[in-house]
Design goal:
Four copies of one chain form a homotetramer. By secondary structure, chain A is of the alpha+beta class. The first copy, chain A, folds into two domains: about 5-65 and about 200-305, DD-peptidase/beta-lactamase superfamily (Beta-lactamase, 3-Layer(aba) Sandwich); about 65-195, Beta-lactamase, CATH 3.40.710. Helix content of chain A is about 50%, strand content about 10%. Chain A has helices at about 5-20, 70-90, 100-105, 115-125, 130-145, 155-165, 165-180, 185-195, 205-215, 230-240, 250-255, 290-305; strands spanning about 40-45, 50-55, 60-65, 200, 260, 265-270, 275-280. In chain A, a hairpin with a 4-residue loop joins strand 5 (about 260) and strand 6. In chain A, helix 4 crosses helix 8. Chains in contact: A-B, A-D, B-C, C-D. The interface of A and B includes residues 92, 242, 252 and 308 of A.
């Protein structure tokens, strides 16, 4: 595909998405998230040769939130392998809210999949290390590689804010601890999870993450294999079936790009064999997905024939 | 892709799958299904030019069962359009069993998606016609086109058997009627749904159905557009997220081919832009999916790089 | 207790309850019930010697609705015995709505108790007889005795109305049939159940029913033992824990009289060793209980120290 | 009732209950509870004049566990009043397990009733005080009065054991905190709750608690009103509808005495206007109720005609 064509599509997607600007709400249950600038909008495509096509606030930082679930899963798979991770968390989509505890109770032992909070906390609990600091260092180092962002840090205020207000996640974690599906110190796992959610990323960086997965685990910049190809495929399929919270099915049907959203306003998309996509815009719909981000994805999918469900 | 290569892959898939022969159980809750020959195994690929690559009992007939959900959805979309159908049924995957009624009650109005029983009954209730006979004629005529099977009929004994034993589906239908999400005569809709499930198909025919969807709605034989391309994409995405009952997520992860299984032993797979796949083998796993069928799909996906989640 | 004192309490209860007249709504989901006169209000006490203390429209007829659950349970216990009945239905209260199907699915086999719809349908299915007509004759004959109402009949229009609109009960019944906890012809059981709900009773009559239970099964009029004392105690305890739909706990706490309400506007109360109480007033609260009826019961309990939970 | 008759009934109840000795299991999820002597069995009746009729290990100490729910509710009602307490917890029975979290989630804001763990934790969170120590002092002082036990203390090892293993209760508490139905420091409330559960009581003492409630709040020993009569009635009705975990309905039906059990092996029973009953025997049935305790209650109810549901 010609560069000029891609750049045009990216620009058009931003323009199209801008039509929904101002709609939606900020994620007010995390106080820190309610301070961001509502008018930001960025779209970035990274192709498998590492070329970037960006428009808007591509380097504006925001917290990864649920996009961290992709990073945590990649880390746990690398460090523990497929069998171990999927003995702690399932693979099945669920129509429940991202923080449902009913599913935990009725399915008894393990959470449904790594893209819901309970599942991501379970995945986090697998990540090894001699101390909480060492465990987080592993995650951070890998995140820097996956996002091609050597200076990546967390937003401390967001982290502290979530530590204070994260009682629902705390409830999920203690519930899993009581079942024995999470072992070790619950508060340590939670702190680690909240830190990963507070990773302070940019739209450019999450498009890079998408491109790594689109390339089957190969970094488009360094050409190094940084995710095992089978793991990359696993992560991509879980994004496709469960990545957009309770609207995963509708997003598959209308857009058709495996993607993971975060309540920080970002969405990372994966078009296998073709490109990674990042969008950022902080106002959310009732499902917790960025309204303009979904529109930008929809527009790109349509312009560039990206749906994996169409010929 | 060379023909000889495809034929080889199909043969190898059958051989590989045969290693699981004898495992699993027949769908004993439908008496008629417990009479079939357990040792059947067929694999058929139909490419977008209509070439068929088959091995095993490719023309052995079996009841479509849940594969009919694909046909019913295609019919309802053609006759009523996207908006009408998806006002009666949702688009979201669910981790529940195919015949769950909890979801109906807690989500109040409409069933989760057209690939679970409640959703398929709701979809069926949309299909228009002056009489039950006329309504079924519409479905049958369209099914003959989609499966490239001019002589397609139903297995009357299977139909009658389900009419007698279908109390759980009856409960789902009356529940929806009480909510007002299904209107009209409940028993008529049920009879129509049971008839569609009793369509007596072959592995060759369901691979043709897969090929139509893989081609975005174009029949590989007649080259006529028989499904609207947008509808084809919708159906394919729903197969990907919810087509394999409670194992849809795992199938996406391990195989990566949008597919729909039936407790009659068939699975129809769709590889967008490339091919349709049919498998048939009657012994089922605990989720109601054909054990050898899953293995054949897995083998083909691996040999021919068919996962839509990998580059 | 002196007669004059009881008569005064009954009159005062009516006066007190009348203060809530006009509040609430009719049970509009059964069309026939929306035709009744909203301004009716009756209170009747029957003591264990058969003396009646009544005020208001004590002989106005209304449909028994859920009060029939008491009659059906008494009939099934008499005809099948304790063990058989409670192998088909549980004894535990539940906070769910009277027509919940979730409980059926998650508890797998039998409904929670005979005071919810599913439980009452299961109880009905136990009542023996060579034909539907004979089975109903048994119920009717026993109901005439229990209510001391030789001419008791059903309201045919109410029965036909429920047959047409009873799809939720139909769903419950087919669900139980699919589990095997209800056997035989589902539609026959449903018709029987709807007929019992359509019994056209008066406030005087349901106070007599209460008095029979209060006397441990002895009719206060004929002095004959018409319910086994153990069965009478069972029925009374189930009324106490589950008789007032989702407000059973609050009613126990605030009033303390074992009671069963119906959406027809009646409530039958049992004060063991002392009296039966009937109230009638058709406007209902959100739980389906008669608003003025609850107030009258509350007033009587307070005036006459009737709570079984206080010394 | 003659003293000799009561003493005889108590002795007979113990003898009868002893026939089930050795059946059941200790509450192994709390390590401390698995250390107790399985062969203990005590039955004590305290009448409204303070006379005690005891047999067996009436002064053997054991942890109150869920019997503390009665004490916590009494304390919260005394200190905060009816309206405040019942704005934080409901009044309805539920068929769910004592530690169900589903109910919390589906009913959204407040737990079903004060006799399940979530409800008791919510009740505990209402109890006022300048510090955790002061709050516990209030509870302890009142418990000493209610149990007529000036030297009552907690079993520190049991308390510490529950603090370590109480992750399910922790999950319940954090869930309520995330809903806002529990406010303040979750860990403080939990410690308080666990301390109350660890109150080291005797069978004699819990029969005194029952007698206070049976007398409408009057201590049978001091003749002082130590519970408001309306509160006493409320507590008694909640014991009747929800006091025996998932077997509350069956216990009402078969025994008919408002009662609260604890997994420590105790049961406290209330016969309004007549007596309090305590039983102790540590082996439990699958619902968490003392097997011999239930049998002793059943025998007493039968011998002395104690069911509140019979004349």
């Amino acid at each position: 595909m010609e560069s000029s064509c891609l750049q045009k599509a990216v620009s058009y997607a931003r323009e199209y998405a801008a039509g929904w600007m101002g709609q939606g709400t900020l994620a007010e249950f995390i106080p820190r998230l309610s301070e961001v600038d509502r008018d930001k909008l960025a779209v970035v495509v990274t192709d498998l040769d590492g070329r970037e096509y960006s428009v808007g606030d591509a380097d504006q930082r925001f917290t990864a939130q649920s996009i961290a679930k992709v990073i945590l899963l990649a880390t746990a798979l690398r460090d523990n392998g497929f069998e171990h991770v999927f003995s702690r968390v399932g693979m099945e989509p669920t129509g429940d809210s991202f923080n449902s505890i009913i599913r935990l109770e009725t399915t008894i032992d393990i959470p449904f999949n790594p893209m819901i909070n309970a599942g991501a906390i379970s995945v986090t609990s697998c990540i090894p290390g001699a101390s909480p600091e060492e465990r987080f260092s592993r995650i951070l180092a890998y995140a820097r590689e996956l996002l091609c962002s050597p200076g990546l840090e967390i937003d401390k205020e967001a982290f502290e804010s979530e530590m204070l207000t994260g009682d629902r996640n705390r409830a999920l974690a203690y519930m899993m601890s009581s079942f024995g599906s999470v072992t070790g110190k619950v508060e340590d796992h939670l702190a680690l999870y909240f830190k990963a959610c507070a990773l302070f990323v940019s739209c450019r960086e999450i498009s890079h993450l998408g491109a790594v997965l689109a390339g089957g685990g190969i970094s488009p910049v360094t050409k190094k294999k940084i995710i095992d190809p089978f793991h990359a495929k696993c992560i991509c399929s879980l994004m496709a079936t469960c990545g957009m919270y309770n609207a995963s099915g509708e997003f598959a049907l209308r857009v058709g790009i495996p993607a993971k959203s975060g309540v920080g306003g970002g969405i990372t998309g994966v078009v296998p064999g073709r490109m990674g996509i990042g969008t950022f815009s902080p106002l959310l719909d009732k499902n917790g997905n960025s309204i303009c981000g979904i529109r930008a994805m929809e527009c790109l999918a349509c312009e560039l024939d990206l749906s994996i469900y169409a010929p």
